[in-house]
Amino acid sequence: MIGMNLFHKIDIVENITPLEFNEHYFKTQKPVVIKGLAKNTFAGHRWSIDYFKESMGETIVDVYDNRKGNPSSANTSADTRMKLGDFLDVISKSEKSDLRIFLYNMFRHNPILRKEFPCPEIFKGALDKVGHMFFGGKNTTVRIHYDVDMSNVIHTHFGGKKRVVLIAPEYTNLLYCLPLNTYSLINPDKPDYKKYPGLTFVKGYDFIIEPGDSVFMPSGYWHYMTYLEPGFSVSYRKLAPTLPAKLNGFLNLFVYISVDKMANKILGDKWLKIKKEIAQRKANWVMKKMYGEDIIEPMFSNQDTTWFI
Q: In degrees, to the nearest 5, what angle opens at C-alpha 172 toward C-alphas 268 and 240?
């Protein structure tokens, strides 16, 4: 059986102008890696794990533990709180770490950081004052998902190397996206084609970004990331380019998440089983319609152990 095709070659550019970026990538919603986008900023020269330990080590931050991930719903509540310096000591070690920080508005706690790494000129817009930071240790992974608000993202990395997998929105059903959620239970590192046969039709990108590099992730693009070495990233956002995408982002944020939490509270494990069955049927429908595949749905037992982060 042929597996996931993650061998698409992503465009890699340098010194791109706002006009070129807008015409070739933003308007066409095509991902791209921009080399050295941060090299001429203070952050590009000075930011490091040690820099944040010295400047913000006493700041209390929300920390998430991959080992405690809940497959039933989106992870929106921190697993613990600790000093940033202590967290950075943990992720700086050479062994694998399950702790990470994500969607942290560090600029709100330290406005100077915004001046040290302002929104890149090519990505200026209504949201260019809001930057979120992400931290992870060696081999820390980020569950495959697409961003709930459907925004476009420019994601700039610092520290060690980071692996990025990108998959276009057209493959959402074949990725077994759980209803009312923006993530999947599949493991891109160990895809189970027997349980998730739709993955055999998925195509995407698999590449590595280095310190100072940025990747543009268009609205609705699925992404799966692995910190190959301890590091951190900053994401700036732009609103979704179309009205349907904006509406989808609004519904995700203000309707679907609440409905999902309520159903999960009422039904518990039964709700996860229902969501998995719906995701399976959607994938089967796409395979039959697009590829003429007649798939027999696998049965998920109560003992089914599903990978999640």
A: 105
